[in-house]
Design brief:
The complex is a heterodimer of chains A (about 160) and B (about 350). With about 160 residues, chain A is of the alpha+beta class. Chain A contains 3 helices and 9 strands. In chain A, the strands form 2 sheets. In chain A, strands 2-3-1-4-5 form a 5-stranded antiparallel beta sheet, with helices on one face. In chain A, a hairpin with a 2-residue loop joins strand 4 and strand 5. Chain B has a domain of about 160 residues: Aspartate/ornithine carbamoyltransferase (Rossmann fold). The chains are: A alpha+beta (about 160), B alpha/beta (about 350).
Chain lengths: ~160, ~350
């Protein structure tokens, strides 16, 4: 963490730090982790830093989730979209770097961009599934074959 | 998973081929002799790796499997009486959630001719889907009735894959929204084989609405099994073939070109061995005047075929409206009525291989 940033926001002793997010992309990460769902967690605070100086990348975004540990699939999804990101779990000031495995399949999280896909039918018990075609930059719906650009995933997080 | 794991294949000594099959062997190189159907042995003959398999996507079929279907389809045409009991005691449900006449009747007749019991669910009132029952519940109910195979047409893309995961009985996709229609593609490729002698080396053009057509992706996937295939997608950019089809063809190193400009159509036509026509639908155009402007260029008539090879075959999944001039009917270019007639033997072959009796 750069010294400039420390001036702005203090370290946290418990929770998750999502660092090295590309500049001005923090909102997309917030969508991926469905930050709104944290409204039910009274102890959680969300600190979003945008356009912070970074030695490595010039500028970057940082998200600190105080008293919250992000889940493994969410971490993997963030890493898929933003390979530069580093995820740290902080427990009683101790920093533990977390490197998620890149997923071959996305299950449950992402909505199919094709409105007529069976996975978008209301009331059908369909588990949404996508194959990750990383090198092509797409994910592909298991049911209807529709392609979704990896970079567009934040707009298709399942409601 | 994508499809049910192939069942254990039991291969004994292949019996000697009958004459009709013999003729077929000469016409086409067969990589794997599987079996021959005779009057006596039909009940145990169908031990193929298509047994119990879902036919959800044309992508799931290998060339060997496809050639096996064609072999049986040929035999169905030659020895139809030998097939009258292949589905005896088998219950086939035809769940058609979207209107269809020809696909439905062709599956219906195919199952009946094989001696199967057919449960036709093609009227909306016959299923409870109109009452708001989920597809899942409908499928579970059919499974509870002990059906041995479900043939399904559904307006949603991906519905067939979903159904295949829900029920253990094999599911045959008879059209899943704008996604795929694999059995149509099987009969299309069979038509090409019968009319042209081989599928390898074909220059195949597809014209019309390639984006919302369910037959086009399935046909493109199936022909990618063959060697030296060249595809020409002839359509305005808004109705060009979908991205996932292109991705698949690229993965399989299939050569294809997209023809989007009207002035390039004659040149493309002149290169084709087969022209596959689908209908441009007015409602697919965001701007109706665009449709009026383009429809003439995508109408196949004798004027367009001026540029074509004399051997060009014109195919159409039917029904046609006005995209295919009736004048062509009288020329040797017209393959589409033969094409339609191959629906029956190919679907009988699919039933025989997937659900045929093998005790």
């Amino acid at each position: 963490m750069s010294s400039e940033e420390q001036l702005l926001v203090r370290k946290i002793d418990w929770g998750t730090v999502i660092d090295h997010i590309p500049n001005w992309r923090a909102d997309q990460v917030l969508k991926l982790i469905e930050v709104e769902s944290l409204i039910k967690e009274p102890d959680v605070s969300v600190i979003v830093l945008k356009s912070v100086p970074s030695r490595k990348y010039g500028k970057k975004d940082v998200i600190k989730l105080y008293h919250y540990f992000i889940k493994e699939p969410d971490a993997a999804l963030i890493k898929l979209l933003f390979p530069t990101v580093t995820i740290n779990f902080i427990k009683d000031w101790k920093v533990q770097k977390y490197v998620p495995n890149l997923p071959e399949e996305l299950v449950g999280k992402v909505r199919c961009p094709e409105v007529t896909c069976i996975s978008n039918a209301r009331r059908e018990p369909v588990v949404r599934r996508f194959a990750v075609l990383k090198e092509k930059g797409y994910v592909r719906c298991y049911y209807c074959d529709a392609l979704l650009e990896i970079s567009s995933i934040p707009d298709f997080i399942a409601a | 998973m994508v499809c049910a794991p192939s069942k254990t294949v039991i291969r004994g000594e292949p019996p000697l081929p009958t004459d009709s099959v013999n003729a077929f062997y000469k016409a086409m190189p067969i990589r794997r002799r599987v079996f021959v159907l005779g009057d006596r042995e039909t009940r145990s003959a169908f031990k193929s790796d298509l047994r119990g398999r879902d036919i959800v996507s044309a992508k799931d079929l290998s060339r060997d499997e496809l050639e096996l279907v064609f072999e049986v389809a040929d035999d169905v045409l030659a020895n139809s009486s030998a097939y009258s009991a292949v589905l005896r005691g088998r219950r086939v449900a035809l769940l058609f959630v979207e209107p269809s006449t020809r696909t439905f009747s062709s599956f219906y007749i195919a199952a009946r001719r094989l001696g199967g019991d057919v449960l036709p669910l093609n009227e909306p009132e016959m299923t409870s889907l109109t009452k708001g029952e989920t597809l899942y519940d409908t499928l579970k109910m059919l499974e509870g009735y002990g059906v041995d195979c479900i043939v399904m047409r559904h307006p949603s893309r991906g519905a067939a894959r979903f159904a295949a995961d829900v029920v253990s009985a094999p599911v045959i996709n008879a059209g899943s929204g704008s996604q795929e229609h694999p059995t149509q593609a099987i009969l299309d490729v069979y038509t090409i084989l019968k009319k042209r002698g081989e599928v390898d080396g074909i220059s195949l053009g597809m014209l019309g609405d390639l984006r919302f057509s369910r037959t086009v992706p399935s046909l493109a996937y199936l022909v990618s099994n063959f060697d030296d295939v060249e595809l020409h997608f002839i359509a305005p950019s808004a109705l060009q073939v979908r991205q996932e089809v292109e991705l698949y063809l690229n993965d399989r190193n299939v050569k294809y070109t997209k023809v989007t400009r009207q002035q390039d159509i004659p040149d493309a036509i002149s290169r084709l061995d087969v022209l596959y026509v689908t209908r441009l639908q007015k409602e697919r155009f965001p701007d109706p005047s665009e449709y009026e402007r383009l429809k003439g260029s995508y109408r196949v008539d004798m004027d367009m075929l001026r540029y074509a090879k004399t051997s060009l075959g014109v195919m159409h999944p039917l029904p046609r409206v006005d995209e295919l001039d009736a004048e062509i009917d009288r020329t040797p270019h017209a393959w589409y009525f033969d094409q339609a007639s191959y629906g029956l033997p190919t679907r009988m072959a699919i039933f025989a291989l997937v659900v045929g009796e093998a005790r």
